[in-house]
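Quick start: read one record
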Amino acid sequence: MSTTGVPPAPRRLRWAVADGVTLTGRALAHWRRQPGQFVVGLLFPVLMVLMFGYLFGGAMSVPGGGDYREFLLPGMFAMTVLFGIESTYAAVATDTARGVTDRFRSLPMTPSAVLTGRAAADLLHCAAGLAVMLACGVAVGWQWRAGAPAALAAVGLLLLLRFALIWVGIHLALLLRRPESVVMLQILVWPVGFTSNAFVSPDTMPGWLATLAGWNPLSATVGACRQLFGNPGWGGESFAAQHAVVLAVAWPLLLIAVFGPLAVRRYRGLGR
């Protein structure tokens, strides 16, 4: 016990939480000062819903029947989560390239606060985006049909996936350290999104691609959300389709277990 009478571990935890809250506030302050970028980020998924739901929706068929917009919206919720990895990458890479991260490392603050603060801020950003998307879905006729508890569980799975992708984005940003390389990340994000069940059923794809889409982590979350929301198209004969809820928990936890420690190690190794 220290001379102040406060055990060292609780005191360190209190400092870590306080530093993390401070850096979360820093990220939120950036969004307040640049509302245009924040609003565009929220409206882009809405544009996708209108485009796919109304322009292409008439040509789409839903496995087992049902309204395509109800099939589409859970996929768009997950795509909103996926697209957020680019903003995480850009923010962390910009701070690293400009030396902001190095200045944070030189301050008397908890080292983990830089990463946890960014993760918390991005999770709040994602929650705001999902709220906008849910409102957009209701406006175009989408409904959750399995009750409020199941709907909240679906939102929780979406946020869990977002939290996992945050750590992927942080690790890649600390690894590459160049904001302009976000274009490379965008090239990777779009194939991940479209080789999933977000827009069409994997049954309509060639065999090898259907298998890839079925085991895509995004597909697990989309399938689980369709099931929990009570929307059409969540069934299937494959193991991945039959156990979508389990995989929607397992995939993000695996990503966190892999990329969380990698991001922390990369952060500690900056400047060496």
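The mean pLDDT is 82.
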